[in-house]
Amino acid sequence: MSTQTESDGPNQQHWLVMRPPEVTQSLPHEYRWEFTRRHPYYLRFWEAAHRHHQQQSLDPEQRAKDEIASLILASIGVESSLCPPDPRLGPEAIGQRELGRAWESGAVAPATFRALGCMLFAALPPAQRSQLGRLLIESSEFDLKTPQMVGLLQRFMDIKDPVWDSFPASAPVISINLQMPQRAIGEAVENLVRQWKEEHGIAEHRRRDDKLEEYLLAWDLREGWHDGGYDGIREQLFKQIAEQTMSPISTAISRYQKAFYYVWGFDFSAELWIRLMGPAKLSRFSAGVTQGLSRRRRWRSPNLRPVAASVVQPRTNETEGSDFLNSAGVTSAELATVDLALDIETLLDRGKSDNEIIAELELEPQHDQELLDELRRRHELR
Predict the structure, then answer these.
(1) Same domain for 373 and 319?
(2) Would you say the pTM of this structure is higher than 0.70?
(3) Do 218 and 355 lie in a common domain?
(4) How far out from the chain centre does Cα 85 lie?
(5) CA 235, CA 224: separation in Å to the nearest integer?
(6) Which of 46, 73, 216, 372 has a beta carbon 3.0–4.6 Å from 78's, enabling a disulfide?
(7) Distance between CA 90 and CA 169 in Å, rounded?
């Protein structure tokens, strides 16, 4: 789960990759679940997050671990109020709010007070959050139509701060006058949406919902998805997938990469695959990496190709360190395996032989050869 970026120093690493919310919001609600339940973070942490919602542990360490699992799921778009269902279940496992199901066809949604509160948390600067919080606390002592409440509302309206007259950029909210004709409401909303899309540089596009099942099939065949988990024995080459789906290899690859985008929120790259799928697919090599730790004098090749900074979310002290993932049950050996796999993939991409890679990275063949073989297999047959 780690990598360097061009702006990072050699010891700075990004451990978690958060899925941008606009990726899931662009999908119909049932496919939001389909792509989310295939996410390795979901498979890794859903049970702990489920436990956190159902019955919190009396053990402080376990309770903290389960809470971290919920935070990690939130980073890929799982509603914080959701008790995560078993990934073996279909879309019927998801309720009305989870993964944004309340969004009609993924386009509009009634704004609940919870949603409005989340929007205020996300969009308001600290000073304005404090300002509003004080007024809300003060208002809790009065009924709505009392002079005191009227006075508080007037104080709020009199605040001379342009922030309060701006619009939330991430999810604009519209106040609808239901007394107006439906056609007039529709035209007004259409004009506002067109204006906002132009202001934010969001291009209009046609959603291809009819292709999503094809994307999932290509993903499942390539990665060996079956019955709520990944089975390496079921993995297929793109040549096999093309034959099974009666399509060109280029189409099979394109469909897989589209699925990768919806699962992860970023375009496919071999480096990103290692960071994201590595803990699930390469964990069986962790023991060998651990045994070789004391023998390997350096971890990273001095001239590794970095992953572009644009594919990595901003680093935060609370959630990006290895201690955070260790607390969630991710071992140092797993992180080290991913780190080493990134180095190996870079050298494979440069056409290095096994002997050259072993020499350059100072590997121990008895510990690392199996990992090298697996990465070469995926590299040459992807």
Answers:
(1) yes
(2) no
(3) yes
(4) 17
(5) 4
(6) 73
(7) 33
